[in-house]
Design brief:
single chain, mainly alpha
Length: 208
């Protein structure tokens, strides 16, 4: 079950530390690798148990069967020795496989954490950039309206008016592009952490 997210009304507040803890639980690659490690641990446990003879069962069999039973018990006790080479090889292989799965788990954890760090910081930066451009766009639109009014009153030449309009168009284009990129990064971030994309999201900047 995923960790709860801090919510205030319809706004989700999330720090980098909370994002890192959450991704370890909800990310499918990490979950699958956890299962792979558990499977390898169980296989190693079974391989170790193969060294141990069933002494209690053999003792009962020997008591019930007399001398023949004692021979039977001895043969069963010697069975692990007879297959010792194969058992040692099996145990070694299982240890290697377990180590491999644990290394893969650690690599996936580090890769995932690095990805969360990068997308978290990118989202913060892009959000600030988009907000800044929105403010600039609003300011430039006010300036342009003044320029347009002045041009109509013949207070400014046509060239200056056209220059102001071109500048405003450039600001609008940059703001639109920043908004699109911000939306894409935000969608990827929400999808990675399984957060509803239609919810308002507030990221807490990490302490530096």
């Amino acid at each position: 079950e995923a960790l709860p997210i801090k919510e205030a009304g319809i706004t989700i507040t999330l720090s980098l530390e909370e994002a890192l803890r959450r991704v370890k639980i909800v990310h499918p690659d990490i979950q699958l690798q956890e299962l792979a490690v558990l499977k390898a641990q169980e296989e190693l446990r079974l391989a170790k148990r193969a060294f141990l003879p069933d002494i209690e069962a053999d003792y009962i069999a020997s008591s019930a069967a007399g001398g023949f039973g004692l021979v039977l018990a001895a043969s069963r006790l010697l069975k692990p020795v007879f297959f010792l080479k194969n058992l040692l090889l099996e145990k070694k292989i299982r240890k290697i496989l377990l180590s491999r799965e644990e290394v893969i788990k650690e690599i996936k954890r580090l890769d995932t954490e690095e990805g969360v760090n990068e997308i978290f910081i990118s989202l913060l930066i892009q959000e600030r950039l988009y907000e800044r451009l929105e403010k600039v766009r609003t300011l430039e639109e006010k300036r342009f309206r003044l320029k347009r009014a002045g041009f109509r009153e013949k207070m400014f030449p046509r060239e200056e008016f056209l220059k102001a309009r071109l500048h405003l168009d450039e600001i609008r284009t940059k703001t639109k592009e920043a908004g699109i990129l911000f939306s894409k990064i935000r969608f990827s971030f929400c999808n990675l952490l399984e957060i509803p994309n239609n919810r308002s999201l507030k990221l807490v900047p990490p302490d530096i």
